[in-house]
Design a protein that fits this description.
By secondary structure, this protein is mainly α. Helix 2 crosses helix 3. The chain has 3 helices and no strands. The chain has one domain.
Length: about 70
């Protein structure tokens, strides 16, 4: 069963990680949905799936910032 996700808090976290503020709410909702799907696929908790996805997103934003700086 999926655990409830506070998308408002998640959106704020995404902003601190580099997500554009205008997209944070939509991305939080998509991330919450995908973490639930991934948890079922991998037979893990939604929290574990969320941590994995957040890690990927953080790496992506870091790479984009490095590319933008060049």
């Amino acid at each position: 069963m999926s655990e409830p996700v506070d998308t408002e808090t998640l959106a704020k976290l995404l902003i601190t990680m580099g997500c554009p503020e205008a997209k944070s709410g939509e991305m939080a909702q998509q991330l919450a949905k995908r973490s639930g799907q991934l948890a079922k696929e991998r037979n893990q908790s939604q929290s574990e799936a969320m941590a994995y996805l957040l890690g990927l997103m953080k790496q992506g934003w870091a790479a984009k910032q490095n590319t933008d700086a060049d």
